[in-house]
Structures are given as structure tokens and as C-alpha cells.
Specification:
This protein is mainly α. It has one domain (18-202, 230-405): Growth Hormone, Chain: A (Up-down Bundle), CATH 1.20.1250. The protein has 18 helices and no strands. It has helices at residues 2-11, 13-16, 19-49, 54-82, 86-99, 102-105, 109-137, 143-171, 176-182, 184-197, 218-222, 232-246, 252-260, 270-290, 295-315, 319-347, 353-382, 384-405. Helix 3 runs parallel beside helix 8 and helix 12 packs parallel to helix 17 (353-382).
Amino acid sequence: MGRMSDRAAAAVPLRGLPAGVWAMGFGSLLMDVSSELVHSLLPMLVVGVLGASMATLGVLEGIGEATAAFVKASSGALSDRLRARKWLMVSGYLLSALSKPLFPLAASVGWVLGARFADRVGKGIRGAPRDALIADLVPPSMRGAAYGLRQALDSVGALVGPLLAMVLMALMGGDLRAVLWVAVVPAIATVVLLAVAVREPSRGDPAPTQPAAPARPAAADAGGPAFSSLHAGFWAILVVGALFTLARFSEAFLILRGQQAGLSAAGAPAVMVAMNLVYALVAYPAGKAADRVPARRLLLAGLCLLVLADLALIAADGPAWVFVGASLWGAHMGVTQGLLSKLVAGAAPAHLRGTAFGLFHLVTGVALLLASVIAGVLWQSLGAGASFAAGAAFAALAAIGIVVTGVAREP
């Protein structure tokens, strides 16, 4: 009976998803238009205009993402303690919006670091409360679809951002700073949308068709998070998530690989367009499938796609193979990212859901810092092929981790 209801829910997920999930999806879309417009031009700003090295870019990218991860750990736990998530999420989007004018004003790498830091702190504040709020709003049988929808809309924004950067660079004669100013507009629109359209459920009520959560342990009410309430399955997901992230360093390196393979500065963001187009097309169907197909199969399929992407990028001797690699990279993201969120939500008690997402983002953010620094140093010393070969090796380790830990074994 339960399996039949899961299938029925999965059959018409778009109709059943709450308005708040759609609003968070479109908020992610708008903010990603802004952030990815900046991100697609950031390598050219840092390396081309400000004269920094590839290793510096790797450190800059890693610090930015690791900062977001550390803040997510605190904001997730705070959303559990306050028993409120919406306004933490909105405040994070607001900080990111306020950081956007700093990029076109940057006169040195220090300015870019400050802007990136503020933007990523904002991302950190909003990430875990938003992901936990999605789980609060939908039943377990539809979480794959809900996270897949958010990831798909997020990816549409990530597709539009670089595409808009390309168009504006052409229209504005390559004026990098003028194009960066455009990113301010969708960032502000995001804050307005979420403040108005998202309604947080009463914290005393379970999500629709979801059994009521067990009583909250006294430790969770009195002070810090009750980590002992996080089951072994969650910690296994944490390990696998870290290995996934080590295999998938910053996408900024895809843009630079495109330039290395012969794309112009104006055309290089097309690599991100290709990646995010595939990501957007795959994310929702993959999320919907995650409500029916064993998670282990999807995780291993995603890793295979990532290894193929790395091999294509290693072999690339022209733009065509870079686009193949970027497309496979996007397919990997579409298959795995919403699924990992679903697994985290399912492995955590409702009263510690924000804490669980915060810990997950913390660990994967530290892994991304390591991955980006490693990729930058390898590229600087041994060339692009070494960076992508290391990514393929970490993907193989992640596959081994899935087998050894027994993660994602579902009934």
C-alpha cells in the first residue's frame, strides 16, 4: 500500500508540490542568474584583468565555497533551535544581493576575495534552512521530485547567467565591469520574491502525509544539537558526499579549459551554458526517478558520468570535446545533487534536519576547498590533464565508498 501511494505521488509531482517549493525554486533561478553571470566572468577578472595566477584562482574559489559551508553548519543548527527557517534563508539571499556591486568595483584580488566572501556567507546562511524547509513542506514520497525541481530551476538560472554574460559582453564591447553591474538586478528580485511568496509551515505540524516526528530530545531543546540522534546512515551519506565533492572541483576550471582549447574570452562562458543546460534537463527527471529507483544505482551512474566527463576534458584538443565533457559533467550533477539532498533529509530526524543539512554542507564545502586547491596546483604545475585525472581518481574512490559503506540501501 505504501509503495502504491509512493508511485501515485511520483506520477503527478508537479501538481502536488507546494507553492513555497516553487517560490524557492524560482528564487534559486534568479539568484543563480546573478551569481553565475559573475562566476562565468570571474576567472577572466581575476586572471586576465587583475593578473592573478591559476593557483590563486583555485584558492579563491575554494575559500569562497568553504566559507559558505562553515556558515551553513551554523545556520542549519540555528534554524532547528529557533524552529524557524524562512527568515534565515531570506537574510542569506539579502547578503548575497548586497555583495554583487563589489565585483564590478574591485580594484584588486583582495576586493574580489571580500566580495566572494560576503556572497558565500550569504549562500551559507540560506542553504541549510532552505533545504530543510523543502523537506518540511513535502512528504517523503515526493522529496526527490521537490529537490529535483529546485535543482532544475537553479540550473536554468545557472544556464541563463553565463548566456547573459556572453550576450552582454558582445553588446558592451567586452566591458567586463559594466556587465558585472547587471548581476545586481536579479539578486534584488530574489529577495523580494522569497520574502513575499514563501510561507513557513507551523513547526508543530508534520509535513503532509508524513508521520509525526518523535518527541524532541531534551538535549536538543536545552542547548546544542543532539548529534547522537543522527543515525549511522546519515554519517555514511556524509562520507560519500565528501568523496563526491573531492571529485567535482569548481566549474571555473571548465571555463578555463574552454579558453585553453581555443574559445575566446567572450565565448568561454558557453561551456557553462552547455553544462547547465544538461543539468537543468536532467535534474527534475532524475529527482522524480529518485522517488522510485534505488538510490545506489543513481549514485553509481552519476559517478560513471563524471569519470567520462573527466576523460573527455583530458583528451580535449579543441572546443568540441570540452563541450562534450561539460555536458557529461552537467548530467552527473543532475543525477546526483538532488538525490544527495533527498538522502540527507530522509536520514535525519525532523527536529535535526537543519543541523543535518548544515553538517553535510560543511563537510562537502571543506572537500570542495581541498578539491579546488588541488586542481589549481596540479594545473599550474602539471597542466589541465592532471587536474581532471585527479577528479576521475576521486570519483573512483567515491564509488568504492558507496560499496564499502553500504550507503543508500533502500527497501
